[in-house]
Amino acid sequence: MDRWRQLFGEQRPLIGVIHLPPLPGSPGWGGDMDAVEAWALADAQAYASGGAPA
Questions:
Q1: Domain for residue 18, yes or no?
Q2: 3-state secondary structure of 22
Q3: 10, 15, 46, 47: which one has the fewest Cβ atoms less than 10 Å from its Cβ?
Q4: Which residues contact 18 (CB under 8 A, 6 or more apart)?
Q5: How much is the pTM?
């Protein structure tokens, strides 16, 4: 388990995923990259406000 601590700085790291809406070239793409960025930042902020380490 020392490997985890060396790699992440934590013994039991939290690994989260930032979910995105459809991106350019995929079905459902809405054409607004600013909205995609805002979506991703809001998802990341939810992790941070919940206490997840960066």
A1: yes
A2: coil
A3: 15
A4: 40, 43, 44
A5: 0.71
